[in-house]
Amino acid sequence: MSSPELERLALPRDPARRAPTLLVMLAGAYDAPQQFLEHGLATDCAAAGLDADLSLLRTDLAAVADGRLVPALHDQVIAPAREAGYRHLILGGISIGAMMALLHQDAFPGSADELLTLATYPGNRSLSAHVAAAGGIARWDASTLANDEGELRAWRAVQGLGRAGAPPLWFGYGEDDRFAASQAMMAAALPPSRVLTAAGGHDWPTWACLWRAWLTARRETA
């Protein structure tokens, strides 16, 4: 099966040079990469002093469904960024895009230096119930997941990123997000300082508030 060509929008911090950091963000379902800019991501990063180029991607739902998106993301974006010389790579996304970032982490551990997942789509309710029945994400045994248990592999990635020595994962969600209960269960694996919440639901104003909170928290802990 051929690899899909990912739709992406590249925005350098300074056209005259490559920034030391690349921020790769995957949009939510049906959203265009341009919407990150319409809601202020580039200006917010600049105002916060984040010296990063942006690579903004559409999350191709057909490629999500057939499993091609994660390897395409790696081959077309992540590996070339390393080859280009970026010293620090931040990988993240919104909703289903956030899940894809976590699945990439599961498939290619260590490829990103930092992760930012906002309003992460946690999969269907049966997955949250499965983890809850095991006693929560800290007690759940994720070591024997089958290859076809893709969405649970995102939960496994969160579990692993909560351990000492793992790349930092910043995990944000709206308090009224329709997936908030499952997102809170995922976030329980992480240090509280890495968990960001905001008033609001599963929508762009909330997500913009969350990435501004991330920029502030990141700067304060640098």
Describe it for me?
The protein has a single domain (about 10-220), classed as Alpha/Beta hydrolase fold, catalytic domain (Rossmann fold). Helices cover about 40% and strands about 15% of the residues. The chain contains nine helices and seven strands. It has helices spanning about 35-40, 40-45, 60-65, 70-85, 95-105, 125-135, 150-160, 180-185, 205-220, and strands at about 10, 20-25, 50-55, 90-95, 115-120, 170-175, 195-200. A seven-stranded mixed sheet has the order 1-3-2-4-5-6-7, sandwiched between helices. Helix 5 (about 95-105) crosses helix 7 (about 150-160). The longest helix has 18 residues, at about 205-220. It starts with 7 loop residues before the first strand and ends with a helix.
Key attributes of the depicted protein:
about 220 residues; seven-stranded mixed sheet; about 40% helix; alpha/beta; Rossmann fold; globular
Strand content: 15-25%
Helix content: 40-55%
Count of β-strands: 7
What's the N-to-C terminus distance?
43 Å
Short summary of the structure?
The protein is an alpha/beta fold and 222 residues long.
Outline the secondary-structure elements.
Blueprint: E1 8-11, E2 21-26, H1 34-38, H2 41-47, E3 52-57, H3 61-65, H4 69-84, E4 88-94, H5 96-107, E5 114-118, H6 125-133, H7 150-161, E6 169-174, H8 180-187, E7 195-198, H9 204-221
Parallel strand pairs: 2-3, 2-4, 4-5, 5-6, 6-7
Antiparallel strand pairs: 1-3
Helix pairs in contact: 4-5, 5-7
